[in-house]
Design a protein that fits this description.
The chain has 67 residues and is mainly alpha-helical. It is built from 2 helices and no strands. It has a domain of 33 residues. Helix content is 46%, strand content 0%. It is flat and about 50 Å long. The termini are far apart.
Length: 67
């Protein structure tokens, strides 16, 4: 698999990352999981963008304990 986008990774790189995490996948599982990993990595990259505008939290809650 070649790198078609600047954010995409090769199947070999993904295999190395998963092995480093202690995960072993079959080749079919690798092919299935690679696009999901790339999508997650792109979304995570957006969260680390220093130009991300700050705003109010999307979800808030009041922590209460039931007695």
């Amino acid at each position: 698999m070649s790198m078609v986008e600047s954010n995409s990774i090769s199947i070999e790189h993904f295999k190395a990352i998963s092995q480093h995490a202690g995960l072993e996948f079959t080749p079919a599982e690798m092919e299935h999981l690679l696009p999901l990993y790339q999508q997650f990595a792109e979304q995570l990259e957006m969260l680390h963008d220093p130009t991300l505008p700050l705003g109010l939290p999307a979800v808030t809650f009041k922590a209460e304990w039931d007695s």
